[in-house]
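Priority: medium. Attachment 1 of 2:
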C-alpha cells in the first residue's frame, strides 16, 4: 500500500506542477527581446535599453561657437558609458554650451538604481533654470536616453561646463545616431 500511495502522491505533485506552470503569465515580446544596447556605468550595471537613435537635441539649447570638434568632424571616443564605446570612431553631430550632469536615479519602470549616468544636460532636467545645480540636488529628469529615465527622480552626482557633443557611432555592430552625450574631455582627434 505504501508504494501505491507514494506513486499516487508523486503523480499528484507532477500534475499540480504542470497545471501551475500553464497558469503563469506569458512573457511579453518586449521582455523576450534583447535590449538595443546596455548602458555601462562604473558599477557595471547592464540591461537598460539604450535607443539606436537618440533624436534631436532638446529645445532651447545653445550651439557652441567654434567648438574644438565641429559638426562633421571624425573623432575617437575615450568614454566608456557603454560596452564598446571606448576607442570607437564617431562623427560629431552637434556641439553645445550648457551645464552637463552625471546623475544617480532609479528607473520609473523599476529595476536596479543607476549610478553615475553620464550625461544629462541642463535642458533635460525639469524646472532646472539657468544656474549650475550643485552636487546632491534632487531633480526630475526629462531625458529619454534609456527606458525609465523620463520622469525619474535623480540626484546630481557631478557636473561640468565643458562643451557637450551629440555623436553618431557604431558600437558592437550597432549604428547609433544622435547619441547623447559626450563631453569634450571624452573625445580625441581621429588620426
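Attachment 2 of 2:
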Amino acid at each position: 500500500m505504501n508504494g501505491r500511495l507514494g506513486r499516487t502522491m508523486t503523480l499528484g505533485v507532477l500534475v499540480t506542477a504542470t497545471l501551475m506552470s500553464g497558469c503563469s503569465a506569458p512573457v511579453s515580446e518586449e521582455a523576450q527581446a534583447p535590449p538595443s544596447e546596455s548602458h555601462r556605468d562604473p558599477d557595471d550595471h547592464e540591461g537598460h535599453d539604450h535607443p539606436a537613435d537618440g533624436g534631436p537635441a532638446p529645445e532651447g539649447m545653445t550651439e557652441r561657437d567654434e567648438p574644438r570638434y565641429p559638426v562633421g568632424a571624425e573623432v575617437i571616443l575615450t568614454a566608456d558609458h557603454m560596452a564598446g564605446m571606448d576607442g570607437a570612431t564617431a562623427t560629431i553631430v552637434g556641439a553645445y554650451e550648457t551645464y552637463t550632469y552625471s546623475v544617480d536615479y532609479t528607473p520609473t519602470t523599476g529595476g536596479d538604481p543607476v549610478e553615475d549616468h553620464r550625461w544629462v544636460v541642463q535642458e533635460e532636467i525639469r524646472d532646472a533654470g539657468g544656474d549650475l545645480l550643485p552636487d546632491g540636488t534632487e531633480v526630475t529628469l526629462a531625458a529619454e536616453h534609456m527606458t525609465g529615465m523620463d520622469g525619474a527622480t535623480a540626484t546630481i552626482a557631478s557636473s561640468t561646463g565643458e562643451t557637450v557633443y551629440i555623436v553618431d557611432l557604431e558600437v558592437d555592430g550597432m549604428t547609433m545616431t544622435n547619441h547623447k552625450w559626450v563631453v569634450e574631455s571624452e573625445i580625441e582627434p581621429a588620426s
